[in-house]
Amino acid sequence: GAKEQAGDGFVERWLEEIESDLAPDMTTENGQGILYRHDNARYISAWPDRGLLDQLLTLMANEGGVQLTPLPEGLRIGRTQSHVFAFNYSAKPVDISTVTNAAHLIIGANPLPPAGVAVWER
Description:
122 residues, mainly beta, 3-stranded antiparallel β-sheet
């Protein structure tokens, strides 16, 4: 289907028509609801592109008091009670200084090479 502007991005692939007494928290440029809230539950009635998905996740994380850490492409982070693990799934070295002080790495290097692993204390 055609893309429709919504928030910071576009609706792609599908868009549901919702009948509800709830007023949408977000609509397409044409006024069709795509985000609904009831108490602590949210419903997204569309397939968001990356820009819109980022906006929706940021909105909901902020409402829930969840801190987000933007990561470079291919970088994944895992946390235990005492340590943080970084995994580079990309084919290029990744600068991990945005997520850690590279001077305090226990394992790994910055930049983190492809398929590389880094560990540091929390």
